[in-house]
Every structure is written in structure tokens, then in C-alpha cells.
Amino acid sequence: MQRKLQAALATLGIGLSGGAFAQSSVTLYGIVDQSVRFTTNSNAANDNQVQLTNGAITNSRWGMKGEEDLGGGLKAIFRLESGFEPQTGVLDQNGALFGRYAYVGLSGRLGTFTLGRQGTESFNFYGDFDPLTVGNYTANSWPFFMTIGRISNTATYAGQFGGLHVGATYGFGQQPGSMSKGSYWGTRASYDLGPASFGGTYQEMRDLDNNVQRMWGVGGKYAIGPATLFAGYMGGSDATGFVDSALNVSTVTGGNFVDNQRRDMTLYTGAVWQVMPALAVTGAFYYDDMKNVNGFSGNSGKRYTGVLLAEYSLSKSTQVYGTVDYNKVSGGATTELPGKSNQTGVAAGIRHMF
């Protein structure tokens, strides 16, 4: 699935050292995932829409990663990854060349330490504990907007000790005279115990006014033969307005986010069933009970989402898939859909990995 370009970098040495560089390797990899999607109630007039769009579950991307053996079990590592829209060729992440990942670091027996643009701890955590591994349409990934996704200017530690997985990240605010404004910190921990895995996460993100968006949660999964069951919880409080602005489908005049912090209680469950070696079927259900939506005291709302996904492998590198999702909102959450309080999406696509 990945094409490895390896080269041994031999040198004549510098000065009297007579040394040579250690062996290095660079891997070029990527996913091109394109789908055709039909959506009901796609605008304020409740028109249907048919569109060519990015993948349902995996956003298209390409990247390079590499490592150099430094000896003694220590390696230098790097990763550069770019997201793009295959239907237009334009870059994602506001046009950043390597908007998904861009980091360098060291990896050894005690874990991995990296610096650069990376995923938040909660985003990384739910990538392991969501049945869809965090979807790619807003319709199937909206619960995870609370995790922020990826941030720049971070220092991250990740380690594995037997069945224990841990991670910690600090994001530099980069503001003169303040260590806290614009900063981030987060942690995660999980444990593998036979067919079961479980864990939790917590993080905080500050805006340039030092207001805080917090989220926390737990998740678990359990493998039973060809099936894996998932369940989890996410909670959040947001005094920055970030979650509302990310989920609203049109411009909404907000209230006072500091005095009326948005609060979310999200529950989810699902299962992945490997029906046969080439066919996997996934079902997922998400529910959010939210308070103080858009910065208004007492403005409560609810959102429900169900997703079905079938993926069939034509080869080790190529899959075709079909998916159906249904969203229902009420109360203050109606600003998260453009027209009626419900929306249905149906899509089919093809994914190639290299």
C-alpha cells in the first residue's frame, strides 16, 4: 500500500572522523478518495443536491514520512502530509501545503517526541475509539469538532508500555508577553486488555482573549470474532464560540460565549462487522445534548445521527463503498442544518491507497 523509496547515504567522512551517515528511508504514501453524494434539505430552500465530493470516511491526502537510525534504538523521524480535494485539486486546511501534518522528532525505547503541526490528543484518541475512525463528511463527523482536530506549533510525547498507550501535547500560543493566550494542552491514555481496549482524554484550548474551550471523554471497544463493538462519551464547555462557529451552516449572530458557555454531552455507539475478508459493514449512532447554544442562556438543543457504511476491497489498495447517514436536530441545534430539521445523505465512492 505504500511505495518505499530507500537510499543508503554513504559519505567519505568529514575531517578526520572517517564516519558515515546512518541509513535513512523515505516513504511516499497517500489516499485518493472520491465520492458522489446525494443530500436532502441541502439549503434554506430545502433543495436536494447531488455533488462530487471528497471521501466519506478518509479525506484524500498525500505525504512523505521518513526515519534515520541513529543507533542505540534511537531514530530521527519526520512527516509531511497534505490534504486536497480530488474533484478540484485544491488544497484543504485553508490552502496550507502540509496542513494535515508537518513535524520532526526523535523516537526510541521511552517513546516518541515530535515538534510541529499535529493532531490534538482528543482527536488522536477518538481516531482509535470511534467506529468510523472519525468520518470525513460533516454529517458523520460533527461530534468530533470539539476535539479541534489538528493544531500548529505543538510539542508532543507519545509512548507505549505493554498494553498502556499515553500521549501529551502542548501547543505554544506564540503571543508576546503571554504563555497562555492561544495555547493548548491535552492528554490521553488507553489500555489494551485482550480483546478489549478502553481509555480517556482531556484537553484545553485558549483563544487570544484567554477564553477556554475544554473537552473530555472516554471510549472503549471490544472485539468479538469478526465484529468490534464501540461506545463512548464526550463532554465539553466552550467560552470561545469555536464549536458553534464550526457547526453552524450559516452566519449566526452569537450571544455572550463567556457568560453562557456552550456545553455538550455527546454519547455514541457502533459496531464494525468484517462480513468476509473483502467486505466490512459499519453502523454508528451519535447523540448530543447541548446547552447555551450560540452563546444564549437556556438555548438548548439536541442532535441525533445514524450512519451505515459498507466497504468492499477490490484489492489491497482499492476499495469501493456505499454509505447512508441521517441527521435530526431540534431546539437551538437547528442552526446546524440549513433548512428543515432533518437531512439524509446517500453516497458511493472509490478509494485508492498508495
Top keywords for this entry?
354 residues, mainly beta, Porin, 16-stranded antiparallel barrel, 18 strands, 56% strand, globular, cell outer membrane, transport, Porin domain-containing protein, membrane
Short description:
The protein has 354 residues and is mostly beta strands.
Could you walk me through the main structural features you see in this protein, from its secondary elements to its overall organization?
By secondary structure, the protein is mainly beta. It is 5% helix and 56% strand. It has helices at residues 121-129, 138-141, 242-247, and strands at residues 3-7, 24-39, 49-54, 61-71, 74-83, 101-108, 111-119, 150-161, 164-171, 184-193, 196-206, 212-224, 227-238, 262-276, 279-291, 301-313, 318-331, 342-353. Strands 2-4-5-6-7-8-9-10-11-12-13-14-15-16-17-18 form a 16-stranded antiparallel barrel. The longest helix has 9 residues, at 121-129.
How many helices? The count is: 3
Terminal residue distance: 5 Å
Q: Please give the domain count.
A: 1
Rg on CA atoms, Å = 22 Å
Kindly report the spatial arrangement of strands forming the biggest sheet: 2-4-5-6-7-8-9-10-11-12-13-14-15-16-17-18
The SS-based structural class is: mainly beta
Order of helices and strands: EEEEEEEHHEEEEEEHEEEEE
- Largest sheet data: 16 strands, antiparallel, barrel
List the topology elements.
Blueprint: E1 3-7, E2 24-39, E3 49-54, E4 61-71, E5 74-83, E6 101-108, E7 111-119, H1 121-129, H2 138-141, E8 150-161, E9 164-171, E10 184-193, E11 196-206, E12 212-224, E13 227-238, H3 242-247, E14 262-276, E15 279-291, E16 301-313, E17 318-331, E18 342-353
Antiparallel strand pairs: 1-2, 2-3, 2-4, 2-18, 4-5, 5-6, 6-7, 7-8, 8-9, 9-10, 10-11, 11-12, 12-13, 13-14, 14-15, 15-16, 16-17, 17-18
